[in-house]
Design goal:
Helices cover 31% and strands 41% of the residues. It is α+β, with helices and mostly antiparallel strands and 98 residues long.
Length: 98
């Protein structure tokens, strides 16, 4: 039974699986926003995902984005996720929170 669990992602606590748990892989401040690169495992790759946060009128706001792009390198994914967050901010500004 454990063979099938491991094969389909139900296997238990190996070290690689723990390091691939969703979380923040990198972050930066940009034009008053906090852009975070989120870890989103997709098989043996990382899918491009991020979070943009800002306090607007005293209320914390967040905008999560996920793109179809996948990377074999975690560092590459982080760089592209932060760049995508900057691009979204430049194009839409506070409009992402509407």
């Amino acid at each position: 039974m454990s063979f099938w669990k491991n094969l389909f992602g139900g296997g238990g606590g190996n070290a690689d699986q723990k390091s691939a748990e969703p979380g923040v892989a990198g972050e930066e401040n940009y034009k008053g926003y906090l852009v975070k690169a989120l870890i989103m495992p997709a098989g043996s790759e990382f899918q491009l995902a991020g979070l943009i946060e800002k306090t607007v009128d005293g209320e914390p706001k967040s905008y999560k984005f996920v793109r179809a792009d996948r990377f074999s390198s975690r560092d590459d994914m982080v760089g592209f996720a932060l760049a995508k967050g900057r691009q979204i901010i430049d194009e839409q500004g506070d409009g992402i929170y509407r």
